[in-house]
Amino acid sequence: MDTLKHIALRGGLKDFVALSSRELGQALGVSQQSASQRILELLNDALIQRDLASRKQRVKIAAKGLETLQREYADYLRVFELRDRISITGRTTSGLGEGAFYMRQRGYKDQFRKKLGFEPYEGTLNLKVSGADLSKLMILIGEKGIPIDGFEAAGRTFGGAKVFRATLKGVDCAVILPIRTHHTDILEVISKEFLRNRLGITDGDPVALDIEL
Amino acid sequence: MDTLKHIALRGGLKDFVALSSRELGQALGVSQQSASQRILELLNDALIQRDLASRKQRVKIAAKGLETLQREYADYLRVFELRDRISITGRTTSGLGEGAFYMRQRGYKDQFRKKLGFEPYEGTLNLKVSGADLSKLMILIGEKGIPIDGFEAAGRTFGGAKVFRATLKGVDCAVILPIRTHHTDILEVISKEFLRNRLGITDGDPVALDIEL
DNA sequence: ATTACTAATCATCGAGTAG
DNA sequence: TCTACTCGATGATTAGTAA
User: Fold this and answer.
1) Same domain flag for A132 and A32
2) Inter-chain contact A135–B80, Cβ cutoff 8 Å?
3) Shortest alpha-carbon distance between residue A192 and chain B (Å)
4) What is the pLDDT of residues B135-189, one digit of tens each?
5) Any idea what the CATH number is for the domain that residue B141 is in?
6) SS3 category, A103
7) Half-sphere exposure of A157 (CA within 13 A, CB side)
8) Which nucleotides of chain D have an atom under 7 angstroms from any protein CB?
């Protein structure tokens, strides 16, 4: 964790950075040997990539390493920044129409009506989150929210989820997240109304979602 | 570090929270014995306080522990949010006049002239930072800045500090921070001129400081 | 139920050194 | 120089258990 963070501080999130095991060891207060060992561990866990072609090795944080750091960052955001609401900005994207399928299930609909006080429009507004806001999304993933139980219907299983009340441009809505997601950048927004029409938003528009925790 | 973070997540920053060694162990993925040991270590380092009066121990993060967490948080802020300039907004507050005393010392004045290119007005403008901007302040605390050496004069010691060039409403100035700052929410701004008069600001006015890293 | 001691086990570290 | 191996020492962790 500490090693990964240090690589990130060196700029390893953007590109490969030269980082000898001696340098790393000094920075972390451990020996060259231990630093080398730590690099190997990170490699083994696929948290970083390495280019050992030239004299000095160059390292770069891999996708899995970025996730790890974001989760850690999200913890600190929770510690220091958390109020009762959080604002996440995302860009409207056209989903795969999957959302509508799930929204049509009675097993979900009934729970939404009971727990949120409205029966959602059969379709979701997908917001693609990027950059710094991804860490805020991590906070959501870590929060409990309002639980939506999984159920069985039509011979298949529908997984559990959690929802958070929210507003989007003043309109009441909710965000829904699968109960166990760790790597997503999509927020699914449900509402009583067809949000796209109601708010006049089209794909690519950035909108700020104000979420209640 | 991990243990301390977990206590913070449980609300240990604000007040004592009940946290048995078994609970902590499970949360951290270690045994009850190790969790107990970690609590003892944190206590020994004065990072937390403990109340062992009742059955379950209750722990609370001490001042030193808060600092530790803030430093760690600042690292993650640097990783995910950092640019080359940072804008921090604070409200003008009347200091205790202490700043003026320090600014009068030749040991500091000479360094300012040499390293900043101006000799500051004998007095500081204090900005009280709150809310989300506090996290930006933590970035500053973690950055190196321009070092100001400590010295001895008049039979006492004047500690080291670090400064950052900045502008306030277009006027060149600098922020000064003690080299090992404790938990602070005050930014001390120095400038060639008497900023209050120059900018016509009075106590309570919010001003945005644009700081160079 | 707790917390935390002791003793055994296991992982981590660094010195020396090879490639 | 560099990385990274072996291996003995030093830490950390845990099971058992006392208070």
Assistant:
1) no
2) yes
3) 33
4) 788 888 878 899 999 999 989 999 999 999 999 988 999 999 998 776 788 999 9
5) 2.40.30.30
6) helix
7) 5
8) 1-6, 12-16
